[in-house]
Design brief:
mainly beta, elongated
Length: 106
């Protein structure tokens, strides 16, 4: 699912919650790897888990998550479009999901 496609359909994902755990210091100009996966998709929200590693994936620098509401262009909370939910979690037709999806476009 490409965010720009959702925005063109007047769906937006404003940040409603963020948690960040700094585990080790990174240095300026250091190459880092950012991994993000979806923990859950609910009727009108989505939660992303993120981990920041060194480029060899030996050291974790940061772990955290963000929760986003789904809104329309007027800022009203709306349900995520079903086609997007099915692309994110093709094994679940329920919009109240709870499964974890690894990899792929988010």
């Amino acid at each position: 699912v490409v965010y720009a496609d959702l925005a063109r359909q007047d769906y937006h994902l404003p940040l409603t919650e963020v948690h960040c755990y700094y585990l080790a210091p990174a240095r300026y100009d250091q190459v880092l790897l950012v991994e993000t996966e979806i923990e859950y998709v609910r009727r009108a929200s989505i939660k992303f888990l993120s981990t920041i590693w060194d480029d060899k994936k030996e050291t974790i620098y940061v772990e955290g998550y963000t929760v986003h509401a789904c809104t329309n262009g007027l800022g009203k909370v709306v349900r995520l479009p079903l086609d997007a939910v099915e692309k994110i979690n093709p094994h679940s037709k329920a919009v109240t999901g709870g499964g974890v999806v690894h990899g792929g476009e988010t």
